[in-house]
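quick one
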Amino acid sequence: MGTLKETQLNHRPIPTERLPDLLRRMPKAELHIHIEGSLEPEMIFTMAQRNAVPLSYASVDVLRQAYVFNNLQEFLDVYHAGTTVLKTEQDFYDMASAYLARARADNVLHAEIFFDTQTHTAHGSSAEMVINGLHRACADAPAKYGMTASLILCFLRHLSEEEAFECLEQALPLRDKLVGIGLASSEVGHPPEKFAKVFARARELGFRLVAHAGEEAPPAYIWSALDVLKVERIDHGVQAIHDAALMQRLTQSRVPLTVCPLSNLKLRVFPDLAQHSLGRMLDAGIVATVNSDDPAYFGGYLNENFIQTFAALGLTSAHAYQLALNSFNASFLDATQRAQYVRRVDEVFETFE
Ligand code: HPA
Ligand code: ZN
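structure w/ zinc ion:
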């Protein structure tokens, strides 16, 4: 894989009006999706009813109307209210299955799914039940949907490192059901270095490591995610655009960014998509990917993120090809599986009329 400038185009240039169709058909991996953020209002109401959980929203429409946010914290408060309806292993299975079916319709062939247990253990659920329900959905994905999926457990950064250690401890008996460890929730005021020891421990245990950094907080958070936590991917990372040395570091190290354009728009990280940094990052040779973050809340699943961002930034089929390759190359799949998916990307680009 080369930078955008070096990538060999294996297809004829595709006219702008055909790009949405290409983006829909293109095989892709999704590497930044919080499964609790895929809970649609209808499913929140169905689960609230079956589990007799009271909701402070009168209807599906009233709930959906609450999805207007000025920043990350306002979103996290509403998102947290939605998670209170999840009570049984079947709820976690159903939530993940619904996401996988929806993602596959967007030609997502592989998903690495974030979840957190701390939200649910605070509501009285066991980490074991949460992981078992989600993992069963991932294990069923090849036969049910013709795709693969794995799980990344995120610590909640507004809680203490001691609590993250407890969370890790509870997950250890289910170690084989997880591919990695991540870091999510309220970013500003909770820098990566707060979790230095627990990430070092997770690394010793053989987990792949990622962290949200530089979504709202300054580039220093991205530097410390790289240098202190030693993560292999940065989630969001869009604030790197303000630090030339960091841009260079990301390009040279080829540490991927999992960028979420519609999330950034809804949480006002950028005033509009036309000002998003994705195009500048790709053109600088950074291994950026496109992802949906919390698609039930941010106005679109993966293809909607691609289509709206390409239109706003005037991106081309060369960018599309690079993003599809990046998504698989940035994944935690083994080299053989990655190569199989990359061949499917090539097939679509080579035969697209
Ligand atoms: N940032 C941080 N934490 C989150 C997010 C996000 O975009 N979505 C769900 N948890
Ligand atoms: Zn996220």
